[in-house]
Amino acid sequence: MKTEKSTAQKQETEKRKSYVLLMIGAILLIAGIILAVFTYNSSYQQSVVLGVSLKEAKSQASAIQEGTAAGDLDALNAEISRLTSEKLHMERPYSYSLTLVFFAILLTAKGLYNAFIGVRQADKSDIKRLAQAGLLAALCYIGFAFFKIDIPVGPEKTSFHFGNVFCVLAALLLGGYWGGLAGAVGMTIGDFTTSYITSAPKTFLLKLCIGLIVGLVAHVICKLSRDHSAKYVTGVTFLASACGMGFNIIADPLVGYFYKTYLFGIPQDITSVLVKMSAVTTSVNAVIAVIAASAIYLALRPALKKSGLFVEP
Asked: Is the pLDDT reported for residue 210 higher than 80?
């Protein structure tokens, strides 16, 4: 009798927590939208004006280097550096507010899921999963922030990087939810701390989706577990990785076009060139991520099982 009462009390407590999470998500969503509208009309518009001045300064510097114009190149480079720094500073509030909107949507969805589907009881494996998620988020950040090659495209740029490798690896090791969060958080921080500040909200959304898709294919559809044969594990690993990165190859340029054009007001001709170049870099990054993440996972899996650190997603 006491056990049934205790179980009912726990269920009621978890349901209340779900509604609290749902309320927090809804409040943050409203606040994020209001903040996004305000920052877009204030600081971001100032960054657009600085962008025009920056473009003119770069054109003048290019003309001086080519010998078609006269001027102090060192002073002009210093001015370009100053304008670039100020522009990034002006873009931050709007990028932060958009990221808050996407994060609030995630919290709201999680609250709805918990309220209607239920909450899984926490156990010791959650501590391992949380620790591994933190480590993999840090690796996602390092893979993007320190191992990348930037490619300028007009006033914007894209890059080859290794961040997606650890994003996919996180989902293979931890499952879609925790793996997706690790990738989203790590890669978003990478954008916030580099010159890719305006891409941070899009990164949060897409990397979360990559993790969810990889985890869905590997652990929900194919039900990858510690007891499967090496051949089955290898096939599922490559399949899940390919599905996640296949999604990114299609979604990154497509979402990027609407994101840059309609949320940041970048001219369509520049966005079109950026999307085409981004499609190339995204495809190369995807191939690298599938091969590297699968190889690392297959190498780590036996060691984690032997050491007792392997966690069933």
From this structure: yes
Residue 14 has a pLDDT of: 67
Q: Token pair of 142, please?
A: 């390092």
The end-to-end CA distance of the chain, in Å, is 33
Helix (H) or strand (E) holding 148: strand 148-153
pLDDT in tens, 273-288: 777 788 888 899 999 9
Q: What does the block give as tokens for 66? A: 């080519």
For residue 33, give every residue at least 6 positions away whose Cβ sits within 8 Å of its Cβ, in sequence order, or none.
Answer: 101
30 Cβ contact list (under 8 Å, min separation 6): none
Question: Is residue 182 within 8 Å of residue 140, measured between CB atoms?
Answer: yes
Within a 10 A sphere around the Cβ of 233, how many other Cβ atoms? 20
Q: Given its phi and psi angles, is residue 71 left (phi above 0), alpha (psi -120 to 50 degrees) or beta? A: left
- Please write the tens of the pLDDT for every residue from 110-143: 888 887 776 655 555 577 788 889 999 999 999 9
Closest CA to 290 of 229, 205, 181, 217: 217
